[in-house]
Amino acid sequence: MLDSVWLIKGLVLGFSIAAPVGPIGIVCIRRTLSQGMLNGFAAGLGAATADAFYGSAAAFGLTIITDLFLENSLYLRIIGSLFLFYLGYSTFIAKPAHKSESAYQDGWIKACLSTFFLTITNPMTILSFGAVFAGLGIVGTKGDYISSFILVGGVFLGSSLWWFLLSGTIQLLRHTFNYQRLIWVNRVSGIIIAGFGVISFLGLL
To answer: pTM of this prediction?
Structure first.
């Protein structure tokens, strides 16, 4: 019974962290529209994996990892901002392909790794986990490794659930987007993603 409680808390935590639409959401939507649900969902799984990593640091009380990321937050945010600029530019100039969705199987790993890197270079995520942990009353897992593992597993599943729902919903609308519309999706997505990079960089100042 107690284990199921930790699982539910992890699901709520992972879902609530992933749900706000940000650059990862834009990437997921754009990849789903241009390359299909599996590619979009793979992008979401990259973020979910990073969420689970940060959730592990918080749940297991890994202060060494937490301090390491926070002490180097300036450098990580610079790297993350530059990566957003690059991702925005490459998205803006990308041309929709006419190939079938099966042709993008080799792109799933790239989609996953790019969003993992984008999420892991945002040290503010771990602060978000700390705040939500406190808000949900998630305390006392330190030393209880079974509960911590279940909690982190719930975080990953909750985050993955959001990306599955998002990519699945966009997949239902995919047939309404022709080649010309996909070009505009790429352009608008590129501008928005680069805009997040600008906001992130200005935050450093």
So the answer is: 0.78
